Amino acid sequence: MSSENGATINAVRFHGQRDIRLDRIPAPPAGVKPGWVKLAPKFCGICGTDLHEYLGGANLIPTPGHPHPLTGETLPLTIGHEFSGVIEEVGDGVTHVQPGDKVCVQPTLWDDDCRSCKRGMVNCCDSNGFLGLSGWGGGMQETTLAPATAVKKLPDSISLEVGALIEPLAVGWHAVDISPFKDGDSALVLGGGPIGLSVIQALVSRGCTNIIVSEVATRRRDFAKQFGAHHVIDPTSSDVVATVESLTGGLGADVGYDCAGVQVAVDSALKSIKARGTLVNVAVWEKKASLNMNDMVFRERAYMGVATYYLGDFEAVIDAIESGRMKPEGMITKKVAMDKVAEEGFKTLIEDKDNHVKILVDLTQPVA
Ligand SMILES: [Zn+2]
């Protein structure tokens, strides 16, 4: 990045494990390339992925000597991939947004050339990356550039705060969308964190009338109920398999969504799904898990993975919010200024995660 006039902007950048700094970096240069836009991010969620980078990274963030294949960048780089903002400038050929428009950002990057992209499955790209994790700026800098296809116009009725929730909501939406869930099905959701809550809201939006959530933290069970779960189970004090059986007329759940990514949850979930039911893995795992294959063999159960979201999922979530089928505002539990991201954002989520769903970085707040 360079700037002819030497202007600088604030950016929250990842330098290494437990090392996030508010830096001054050169402002993006004047003039935007054809097919690109310049926008001013306004709100940006802190994601579980960001926390994993902070606590145990760099994992996804490219390190010196190993630049990301699409951006060519390595750390230090700007973080934040769940963001909304206002368009400042558009390049030639960009017609779906104009300066002044409120937008949210689909941050995924793909190469359009690999075996998955050639089949249209860009979310499974061999070179996949994210704005805000792989380079090309991100949601925690005052001005950033993005491919025009990444920005989605927000209707007037959706605030910029809620716009920053659309990325995590799209993850849950996509999981339900490509799962075998159909009208009348029951659903078991493992984990009541931000992604579990996104899955719950996607299920509610599709009219699911039997959503059962298993979650160890009391506050998170309350959040699950607030967003539409019909039954919540504390797996530390209740038998998950027996409870799900009794809540599904003795059949077992039709579909399960693992948003927890822990061994004990998968073990009970597989047994809680009906014969020929499917357990959908949405969680990103920190280590290898084991599956009891005979739980699948003798009940003809299926296990499938889902990754991020697909083209059209952001638009579907925007439509669900605009029409009132999804009301995600309550997911925002705190807003912090750019100079408080490490202290009041990351540390709060690490030390007090059960009381928070989404902490947003508020780029409209002045920096001390
Ligand atoms: Zn690809």
From TrEMBL:
One of its GO terms (biological process) is butanediol biosynthetic process. SMART domains: PKS_ER. GO terms for molecular function: (R,R)-butanediol dehydrogenase activity; zinc ion binding. The keyword Metal-binding applies. It comes from Coniella lustricola. Keywords: Metal-binding, Oxidoreductase, Zinc. Belongs to the zinc-containing alcohol dehydrogenase family. The lineage of its organism: Eukaryota, Fungi, Dikarya, Ascomycota, Pezizomycotina. PROSITE patterns: ADH_ZINC. Residues 16-361 form the Enoyl reductase (ER) domain. This is Chaperonin 10-like protein. Pfam families: ADH_N, ADH_zinc_N. Its cofactor is Zn(2+). GO terms for cellular component: cytoplasm. InterPro entries: ADH-like_C, ADH-like_N, ADH_Zn_CS, ER, GroES-like_sf, NAD(P)-bd_dom_sf.
